[in-house]
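Entry for the shared binder. Reason: the reviewer on the internal report wants the predicted structure included alongside the sequence.
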Amino acid sequence: MLQALGLGPSEEAVYTALMAQSEASAHDLARRTGIAAAETARVLADMEARGLVSVATQPDREEPGPARSRLIRYRLTPPSVALAPFLAERRTALHQAESAFSVLIEQYRSTAVHTAGGVVEVVAGAEQVAHRFHQLQRGAQRELLVFLVGTPVAVPREASDISESHALERGVDFRVVAAENYLDSPDAARDARASIMAGIELRLVDSLPLKMVVSDRERAMVPVDMADSGGEPSAIVVHRSSLLTALVHLFEKEWAQARPLYATTRGVGAKPTDEQQPAEGELEVLVLLLAGFSDRRVASQLGLSLRTVERRTRRLMDLAGADSRLQLGWHAARAGWLGHEAEPGRH
């Protein structure tokens, strides 16, 4: 945690250990942290020079060196006082880095924007493609637009998950359109469910013309399919241009036509069609089932045969993809079948 402010691992360990007590010697802190006594003494001396700790007890000068160091006791300087300058320094450095970043981008655009190389760059090799992909995701500040098609080739799913979580933590708007064949890959439904639960908006279409990720509508990456030629994975990165505008337009068009996916107990499901919604008679059965009625009491209450109740219950279970009536009740609430909640996929 404190390493983000410029403190090393040993300094952080000693600082947090000293925080747990009013004062302590280097010997005490070495015992608590597991760091060698000599190293702990050196760290404390450095932290004193930087204003992070102060000497609470000073031994007599006549004491020999080792004994004297054991008797010196340190007290923590309050974090609000000691760490504020470190935080200010880091903020200044980050501001300077952002300014330099903006200047470099403008310089690059001014020299390359009128050439094809300034609009499109080619990235070759699995490692380079994966690296560029993570750059786009980690650099996004506002929005990520993604097309998912087939099985990931250059970017492992686990690594992609890490980039997704970092983007979501920053509050990035994350929208994904997946082709149906993407869900055919191993564990895809489980991963898709986890993504939806984490906050990613995911929709499904029958097919997509390409894989793609667009970052902040300023740059996009499109993998190049080299499977037929046996070549190594490659991709093109498209910078701000009419070509990038066309890719964004393509995404928005597919997004508008796609079916929203929502999390289910087994994985993910698409927003149901009218045929996949319970009929009125089935909902009457559902209400009584959720109230705790047995099938026989439901049949008596509604004036139906027991077989009809069982048939309607079975269809409700099939629609919900449920293995138990508890799961059926959960899905009914999630899907808004009883009118208490919004339909799946709506926000």
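Summary line for the report: Residues 340-347 have pLDDT under 50 and may be disordered.
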